[in-house]
Each structure stands twice: as C-alpha cells, then as structure tokens.
UniProtKB/TrEMBL annotation:
<dbReference type="Pfam" id="PF01966">
    <property type="entry name" value="HD"/>
</dbReference>
<protein>
    <recommendedName>
        <fullName>HD/PDEase domain-containing protein</fullName>
    </recommendedName>
</protein>
<feature type="domain" description="HD/PDEase">
    <location>
        <begin position="26"/>
        <end position="160"/>
    </location>
</feature>
<dbReference type="InterPro" id="IPR003607">
    <property type="entry name" value="HD/PDEase_dom"/>
</dbReference>
<dbReference type="InterPro" id="IPR006674">
    <property type="entry name" value="HD_domain"/>
</dbReference>
Amino acid sequence: MYPTPEEKAVIDDAEKLMVETMARYDPSHDAFHVQRVRKTALMIARSLEISPDLLTVELAALLHDVLDKKYVTPEQASDPYSFFLPFFQQARDIHGIDLIEDGRARQISLIIDNVSWTTEKKLREAGKWTKWHNECIELHCVQDADRLDAIGAFGVMRCAAYSAVRNSVLYAPLGDSVRPQSAIQHFHDKLLHIKDRLKTEAGKTMGVHRHKALLDFIQSLEDEYNVTLR
C-alpha cells in the first residue's frame, strides 16, 4: 500500500525542502501552489489505467518548482539531478529508498527539468521533443497538474499575483502599447491554450471546467472595461 513508512519519510523530507524553498518565492509560486499540484498529480495518476510509479509522481510534483528558472540562476536550473543528489542520497542512507540505484532519481530529475510549458514549447520548436516526452506518464501527471493550476480560479489569482510582482499592467485594451506586457495578454498568449494541450483524460476533463472559468472571467473584464456612461 502506497506509501510505505519508508516512502512517507522520503516524501516528508521532500515536502520540508519544498516548503523552505518556496518561502523565498512570490505567492504565484508558493507552497500552496505546490500542494495543489501534488494533490492533483496523484489524483490523475490514480485515475490512469496503467498505474505510474506514485513515488516518482509525488516527489516530482513536490519538487517541480524548486528550481523554477524565474527564481534561480541558470547554473542551478541546468542540472536538477546534481542539485537534488544530496536529497536522493539521504533517502538511500537514512530511509533505505535507493532512488539512485533504481533509476527513479534520474526520472524525477528529468520530469522536474521538463515539466514547464515554456520548456515544452522550446523543445517542440527545436525538434527535440522525444519519445520519452510522449510516453512518460509520470511526466504527464505532473505537467497536467501544474498546468491545471495555471487556469481556473487559482490560475486567475496566480496570474494577478505574478503580474503584481513584475509591476505589469493587469488590463490594457487592444492597440495600447503596454498590452503585450499585460496580464490580460498572458491569458491569450498562454492560458487559453492550456486546455487543448493537456495529456491525460482526467486532466482534460478538469481542464474543460477551468477553461470555462477563464472565458467567463475575460468576458467579465471586457464588460466592465467597456461600460458606458448614459
């Protein structure tokens, strides 16, 4: 039965590392975001006909934003395996879970390195999207969970929070010079495309509801902006 006591100890260590790290980031990428991704990723994993490795899914979900390129140096982000190696060694030496020997440490690191929307976009454009990317169901569970948290009600709040950190305009009408850097443009450039690029059936089902929430929110913005005096 997952998790075993030993697996639970490793998960708790990963959660502690995550919480300590995310405390340094802004509210759009905080520990609450990661916990939502963790919960959704495990829900998706348990819904699949072919069961993925749940420990891989949970650890990758917990650690997926520790090395987010928006918050760490390119050098830190370039080699997740080396960065997390002390954590993997601790799992082996203290808890008896040898993720290094069984290959899951590499798999978790690869998922962390490939989970982001921007990374996938760049790899596809460069023709570097591989068979592993298409077939790794653990990656798909974490990707879908992370992307689902970028849309719907929480997605709206997170977009506003990150825009505030960057001091970006929340809304500007079409044709305004600041529109390309505005939060509303981010909806059109990325968030509205997420629904059609989810990979799991459970993710797609949740995506429909959350996508509608985005559309309703955008319509409300337009209605409020275009109000006229009588």
